[in-house]
Amino acid sequence: MTGPGVTLLDKSEVLAGLFACWESLDRLLAGLTESQWSRPVPLPGWSVHDVLAHIAGTESMLLGSPTPESDLDVSALEHVRNGVGVNNECWVRHLRDESGTDLLARFRSVTEQRRAVLAQLSDDDWNAPTVTPVGPDSYGRFMRVRVFDCWMHETDIRDGLGRPASDAELAGPAARLALDEMAAGMGFVVGKLAGAPQGSRVAIELTGPLARTVRVAVDGRAQVVDDFGGQLPTATITMDAVAFTRVAGGRAAPGAVELGGDREVAAGIVEHLNYVI
């Protein structure tokens, strides 16, 4: 639901997803060997250890900790593309010398503090406009972005460790909220990045445990809609939902994708699915 200028989201639902993701990360990482902490993940230049350092660093920042200075100009690194990436890399390098055990202890401490802060937020504070990674919106939307980010990085870690999530694990609230956040960005992908023509009705059919249909109508501007008012889509894209998240996050190239209707429009959208900063 969208209020005056902001997205209004249920606080208990979003926090349940965020906390569930933190708990899942804790279970996944507990007992790793140092060699497992060092395994590379799909993100260039990062290891399992680096991903958790990034998450712990971001939550530390949200508690008010300043971004640490780096030992080098991280903006010159090939995989750092913007200011957000600079901040992320500063935390990663700052925490790189910590053992995996110590880093996990830090993560537990920081997220416990964040739990307390978030649980005490009033509804007014939750719905208040703020700066978010997706532009000005509610603090609640910012926290759904945090669910998305943490869940995506949990999947990065799972890829690095060779421990894919089970269907039961995908059925939790974090995966659904992460996909909600990604679905909200499909108007931008279809209209701005892919340039779908006026009148387009695009149905992105996601399959597997996270199955859903994301519908985008281009009418003046592209926006996500609940339905097409009884009309059929002009272009369809069918793919596995988890694969969709990996493509959209720049982690993998499109695999098995079925295109229907206006295949040229559909193919252009798939080509621009990698939209996450």
Automatic annotation (TrEMBL):
Coiled coil: none
Residue span, Mycothiol-dependent maleylpyruvate isomerase metal-binding domain: 20-158
Pfam families: MDMPI_C, MDMPI_N
Span of domain MDMPI C-terminal: 177-267
InterPro entries, sorted: DinB/YfiT-like (IPR034660), Maleyloyr_isom (IPR017517), MDMPI_C-term_domain (IPR010872), MDMPI_metal-binding (IPR024344)
GO molecular function: metal ion binding
Origin superkingdom: Bacteria
Residue ranges crossing the lipid bilayer per the database entry: none
NCBIfam families: maleylpyruvate isomerase family mycothiol-dependent enzyme
Name of this chain's protein: Maleylpyruvate isomerase family mycothiol-dependent enzyme
